[in-house]
Design goal:
Elements: H1 7-36, H2 51-75, H3 91-114, H4 123-147, H5 156-166, H6 177-194, H7 196-199, H8 228-238, H9 248-265, H10 268-285, H11 289-313, H12 319-334, H13 346-349, H14 367-399, H15 404-416, H16 431-434, H17 436-442
Helix pairs in contact: 1-2, 1-3, 2-3, 3-5, 4-5, 4-14, 6-9, 8-9, 8-10, 8-15, 10-11, 10-15, 11-14, 11-15, 12-14, 14-15, 14-17
Length: 476
């Protein structure tokens, strides 16, 4: 276990953790209170009795994903990293990371132990549960084969999945992600404005560098994370959550804040994913109920096809900021062991020797390529099954007027065309927007509805209750 070397470091860790925890304590319970006061659009539909426990798990997981990175940024001089030259994690950041991951494990364990045993889960949820856990199980099997016993914190992934499953987490339970993504976007923008040396991207020397991708000024926004692309992926996957916000005022406020952060990050993948997600929803809202499901299926298939075909059809090594070279080299390596792949840690291992990939290949820069290269066909198939289950659920929800799952899955596929949102093993900075929504969407397929085209689930663009007009915006 890591320990701070000095009292000053310990005090700094406590200060940072306390400050962010205090902010979350103020913002998240208020947001939860807003959720409780929402009137259901379906009068007979009751809110999830376990929403408080689910919200607690989501808040703790969010803190575990966010605070360690912010601590690292606060304590180190920002600079660009290569695979063979990664800035070492500070002891303070490591302490915060371990503490919050173990807290996540504890919260999930206590929540499951205390849960109401009368909760019922349908057959679809049981199938989806196995689909959610299969990629993790294969990643752990790879780790055990390569290095022995996996780290204990790897248990956080199944703990969160099982807790969400045990409490039958629903789409409305994800509404708390809206203020969370607003907090990340607003916090990153503030960091970039107040302390550019901490919030903006720097070169290998540590000095701020110009970028041809910059939309604002000449530098890119990295915010709480080590690279603008990481911030971009988080924003792209979190942006659909604004559809779950309480009021139109809150939604437009969040869209504006997240939009500015996406543009400042310079992530073209994030911009494309965000625009595609909201475009899919906009078109779906123009259609009648029977056509919504068909449109959702078409949109999801097109987005998934984009993710799969782009790397397979790329022959130019310099295409898409040299991602072509990563894809060509990764697929060539995969063919050496097509069933099991090269191992979970392959991208970090090849950095130690001369290789055909460029020195910034932390992963495969594509969900399919990364799955094949590290886990072979077994991992690619299990991930594909999970995405298929979630996509089917998203199409069903779209037919009934709930568009968040559609927007999220489109964003996931488009993001996965050039980035890797999750490796399905650990809690990392993207876990809270890459795994948690995917799991909840997968385990929730709407019940067969009556033949009515006016039925709208509670979470779909809820109207603002008349007695709440004096409340502040979700993000100020």
């Amino acid at each position: 276990m890591f320990e701070p070397k000095t009292v000053d470091t310990a005090i700094l860790v406590i200060f940072i953790g306390t400050a962010i925890s205090a902010g979350a304590t103020l913002v998240m319970p208020w947001a939860y209170g807003r959720m409780r006061r929402t009137k259901s659009a379906i009068q007979h539909e009751q809110p999830n009795p376990s929403r408080k426990q689910i919200s607690t798990i989501l808040i703790v997981a969010f803190l575990a994903c966010t605070i360690p990175g912010l601590t690292q940024v606060a304590l180190t001089k920002r600079r660009a990293n290569a695979v063979a030259d990664v800035a070492s994690t500070t002891q303070a950041a490591a302490l915060v990371s371990y503490a919050l991951i173990y807290l996540t494990l504890l919260c999930c364990a206590l929540a499951i132990v205390r849960k109401n045993s009368s909760l019922e889960v349908g057959q679809h949820s049981q199938i989806a549960l196995w689909a959610c856990l299969a990629p993790w199980a294969l990643a752990i099997a790879h780790t055990m084969y390569e290095t022995g016993m996996p780290p204990i914190h790897a248990a956080a992934y199944p703990a969160v999945v099982l807790a969400l499953y045990a409490f039958s987490a629903t789409i409305p339970d994800l509404r708390i992600l809206a203020p969370m993504i607003g907090l990340v976007a607003a916090g990153s923008i503030t960091l970039g404005l107040v302390t550019p040396a901490k919030g903006l991207m720097a070169g290998a020397s540590g000095a701020l560098t110009d970028s041809e991708k910059a939309n604002f000024g000449s530098t890119l926004l990295a915010g709480f994370y080590n690279h603008p692309n990481v911030l971009g992926v988080i924003l792209a996957l979190g942006a659909p959550a604004v559809l779950l916000a309480q009021s139109s005022r809150a939604r437009w406020t969040l869209i504006g804040i997240v939009g500015v952060a996406v543009l400042w990050s310079g992530s073209r993948t994030a911009l494309a994913a965000t625009l595609a997600a909201f475009a899919a929803v906009f078109i779906a809202k123009l259609l009648s109920s029977p056509l919504r499901g068909k449109w959702a299926a078409v949109a999801l298939m097109a987005a998934a096809a984009t993710m799969v075909t782009i790397p397979l059809m790329t022959t130019d090594a310099h295409a898409l900021s040299s991602r072509g070279r990563i894809w060509i080299g990764s697929l060539a390596a995969w063919r050496e062991n097509p069933v099991f792949g090269k191992g979970h840690a392959w991208y970090s291992e090849i950095s130690k020797v001369r290789n055909d990939l460029i020195d910034i290949a932390f992963h495969g820069h594509n969900m399919l390529v990364n799955s094949l290269a590290t886990g072979g066909l077994l991992t690619a198939v299990t991930v594909g099954i999970l995405l298929l289950v979630a996509s089917r659920s998203a199409a069903c929800w779209a037919r009934q007027g709930q568009f968040y799952p559609l927007a999220y899955m489109v964003a996931f596929f488009v993001t996965g065309a050039t980035e890797v949102a999750t490796k399905f093993r650990d809690i990392d900075p993207i876990f809270w927007v890459a795994v948690i929504p995917l799991v909840v969407i997968a385990i929730n397929q709407p019940k067969s509805s009556e033949r009515s085209h006016t039925t709208v689930p509670a979470a779909s663009f809820p109207l603002e209750p008349s007695d709440q007009t004096d409340l502040p915006n979700v993000v100020s």
